[in-house]
Amino acid sequence: MSYEEILLFVLGAISVIVAVRWVTEKTGLPAAVLLTLIGILYAYLPGPNLDLHPELVLTFVLPPLLYNAALDSSLLDIRRNMRTVISLSVALVLVTALLIGLGFSLWVAGATLAAGVALGATVAPPDPVAALAVGRKAGLPGKLVTLIQGEGLLNDATALTILTVAVAAWRDGNFNFDNAVGQFVISAAGGVLVGIAVAYAVRMLKALRYDPLNANALSLITPLAAYLICENSFVHHYVTISGVLAVVVAGLIVGHDTPRYATGASRLQVSAVWRLIDFLLEGMVFLLIGQQVPDVVRGLGKYETSTIVIALSITLGVVLLLRPLWLVTTQWLPRSLHTRLGGQDEPVSDVEKREAPLTGKEVTALSWAGTRGVITLAAVFTLPEKFPDRELLHFCAIAVVLVTLIGQGLTFAPLVRWLGLRANQTDKAKLRNEARSAAVVAALDRLDDIQEQQHDNVEDEAIETMRKQLQFRLDRYQRRLDLLEQVESHEVPESPQYEAALMVRQAVIDAEREELLRWRDAGRLNDDSLRVLNRELDHEELVLPKRPSNS
């Protein structure tokens, strides 16, 4: 493709991504599913196509996506559910890869254990993007969101490490289980250590994070640096380290530190930039997934139909059936084995409340949240050219992606609604208002400390003005809490007074903005000053909730 064709393709892809987002907002359909279907349709039309270059995806696409997901995750919640997350992101991925490997070696003509394990490693890790996008809109409880996020962050590292071991076994001519386990442990431990080191290096550069532009630049290079440290050829000459795991660990720690080491302006700008990057990268990836279908199908010509059917049946059977079986089985295991989902034996603090085992409805929803995506396709396309049954593995992998992405992606929201799984919005609203009240009380206490120090009359007036504003906010939060305490349902009740206050504040901001525009249009205010004043109003508008009932 020429540069003009690439540019035209990128512009067209962005237009499609924007249009699909508009459609999903109107219809509620999953964007990932629509983009994949559009990619398949486009692939069969005449015109330029972009190939999925796995190294490009693994180096420049996957690290930013995982890093942004880690920034938005909760380190405390994942640590609280660590046994469950490890069960799904490590143990389940390992078992999936091994079962598919055994199935291929036993029943697929000419297939080896290494080839089957390689395929199993690529299809084992779910991609949580589609499931979480749908689940959040459907009101999925926070506990399940945390489990899906945690699993999706860590399972990629497990899968890619297993894939590396399988390819090495093919080159060596045998699959040595002891060597595979040792390599996996070293790779994972190295990734964790590098991620921690990168996160603490970012912490040491906290002075740079006070400036929004510096904070943006530092945030953008962090995942790429963490990945490059692990995956460069010099390091790989001595030891294999998981770059994906390093990126995830760094993101979790940096995200946990951000409220302490960054200014409000930096956080706002960094968050906005990452939302845009995430939006465009995810859209491009799902379009590319669809475009690979024709080439993959054409590569099946040398295989018997029976071989294709058996290989696909084994792959889909393990992927679709093992996950619910695994979740149900781990619920039945004795508590002493420490694999019960959500179980904790040690004493917990008030912050780390004891997690109850998953209910049947939660197990059902979590079983259906196993959509596969970009990591599966990127990983399977990294297989060497001479790898046995490479074309068959490509087909099985993309079939799993399409079946789970389209089948589970389209039915996940109806399933969540049918199960009646809804986040308790009342509890969330109460917690937020309690935290707001506590913050205001802390601010009033700080004012008392200031007032006890030496000050003049001007400072007295400033203190009193601030005290009145804080007391007004505290009274408003308390009235909101009183209303929430009387609610028995899980939905936040509507408050006419609260909604009226939001409406009035929005109307005031609109009036201020219109007046500033009139001043600019009349030549009384230049555009530079207009942007500064508009930014002040934008920040005020940003704190207004879009849905008053969810505040």
Give an overview in words.
The chain has 551 residues and is mainly alpha-helical. Helix content is 76%, strand content 0%. It has helices at 3-27, 31-43, 54-71, 75-80, 82-107, 113-123, 128-137, 142-172, 177-204, 212-231, 233-238, 243-261, 264-291, 293-298, 305-332, 360-367, 374-380, 390-419, 425-452, 457-485, 496-521, 527-542. Helix 2 (31-43) packs across helix 13 (264-291) and helix 8 packs antiparallel against helix 12 (243-261). It is globular, with a radius of gyration of 26 Å. The two termini are 50 Å apart. The model is unreliable at 338-354 (pLDDT under 50).
Task: Quickly list its features.
single chain, 551 residues, mainly alpha, 22 helices, 76% helix, globular, Cation/H_exchanger_TM, Cation/H_exchanger_CPA1
Structural class: mainly alpha
N/C terminus separation: 50 Å
If helices are DSSP runs of H or I spanning 4 or more residues, what is the number of helices?
22
> Which term fits the overall shape?
globular
In total, the number of strands is: 0
Low-confidence residue ranges: 338-354
Estimated share of beta-strand residues: under 5%
Mean pLDDT: 84
Please give the largest β-sheet.
none
Rg estimate, integer Å: 26 Å
Please give the share of residues in helix.
over 70%
Task: Sum this structure up briefly.
The chain has 551 residues and is mainly α.
